[in-house]
Task: structure prediction
Amino acid sequence: MTTEPLKLYYYMKLARECDTAILRLYRQGKILGGAYTGTGNEATAVGSASVLEPRDYLFPLHRDLGAHLVKGQTLRNIFLQQLGRRDSLTGGRDGTGHYADPALRIYGNVSHLAAMIPVAVGAALAAKIRREDAVAISFIGDGGSNVGDFHEGLNMAAVLKLPFVLIIENNQYAYSTPASRQFAAKRLSDRAAGYGIPGVTIDGTDVLAVADACRLAVESARRGGGPSLIESVTMRMQGHSASDDAAYVPPALLEEWRKKDPIDRLERMLLAECVLTAERKAGMEAEIASAIRLAVGEAEANPYPPPGDAGLGVYA
Ligand SMILES: Cc1ncc(C[n+]2csc(CCOP(=O)(O)OP(=O)(O)O)c2C)c(N)n1
Ligand SMILES: [Mg+2]
Result:
């Protein structure tokens, strides 16, 4: 558990600066494939992962870089993976967060939305059978929550009372489709009743509220209380990926959400309580910038995998 407010602040800033570096690398033509950011989602990703123990299973999504970092992933591994280099966790075979790191119990997403929910439920089932006292936590977007795997996974977790927590990251859009064109439910957490499990909707820009809700859900799952559904409401502050300018999002909507920026929100609170000072903030920013520079430099110096390795580890 990493729930001290100053640590949460640090990890949210680290995640945002990593995203900024990833976008820069993309624009420099150094990232092959897509680049995704979690701007606006930092409180959800960091707050949720902050309540996990090392033995818990994390199944993050494409906006959850902060969760990877909190769970212990190194900047070196993050940038090796983003740049598709030989020594990355996928040996240069994939990019973004599409990797698994069993030592840290991080199982990144594949492209197919919601496909990892049944896998996460399987991890929760394994944890229960092995009496590991571990919880599996998984994420899904507002758009992805309409895929059939969501229903199958959550239903099975509920019936078997598995130690599983599912967080819906409702960031108002699924690519260019607004929430109003995706579902008729008032709250996505209302779906929990259909599975016979608890469901809550929380302010996804308030990292402390996210951590509190996730702590309750994880504790209940650990005690044998079964799964929970948490809808974390936030806004996708950038395009779907680096190639999307999001011209379809009304500027006034972005302006409204900018006032609720998760990092600024916590920063104002910490400064007011004197937990954070201007000096400490500057020191933290310098430390983050230098750690990212070092990791990017190391990753760029790492070669691409040899072409002859392309067939290794391929099933069938
Ligand atoms: C099953 C499936 N359908 C469609 C896609 C294409 N696709 C990738 S991301 C995306 C939008 C996802 O929106 P949402 O679930 O709300 O997550 P967000 O990107 O907003 O965090 C779509 C349609 C996919 N990857 N998988
Ligand atoms: Mg969305």
